[in-house]
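Morning F.,

Quick status update on the modeling queue. The single chain you submitted on Monday has been processed. Sequence for confirmation:
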Amino acid sequence: MRALWSLPAAVRAALVGIVLALAAVLTVAHPAAAHDELVGSSPDAGGDLAEAPAEITLTYSAAIMTEGATVAVFDASGRDWAEGDPVIDTNTLTLPLAAGLPAAGYVVEWRVVSSDGHPISGTVPFTVGGGAPITSDDVAGASAPEDDGAVVPVVVGSVIAVVVVAIFVWVVLSRRRSGGAED
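Structure tokens below.
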């Protein structure tokens, strides 16, 4: 600890700045890891409906953005039964379905942008009329939307913090050197 106090004031200030910048980045990044999530659906995940639904409703833990929302309702052959675009009202997404869904298994594949700006995705399997349940892996020619995760914002924030601290250190040391030459 004594060695720290023997350092020039500019170096101590730079070290304090680095520690504060890293603490700020880690503090800000932590809440971003707790993304919004799907909290309910109609039909329910794993539900077996006697009759085909006219629409799918997905409910999230917070408001979702209208931009970037994609939803598909696949059967095992890869047919998408979605009819039209999803409609978003705060934290609820509704998607109309084509008429005539036969007794079969279906999987809703969704991807939305959560209130914190990060994409989230998932699936909701259901069956109609006692059909055999399916997963995204069972769907011919279809793939689930991907979740981009929160790694990129943390990395970008860290790089920005390091650059800001480096500029601060350079300015402080440059002033100190030029001020020392005048004495």
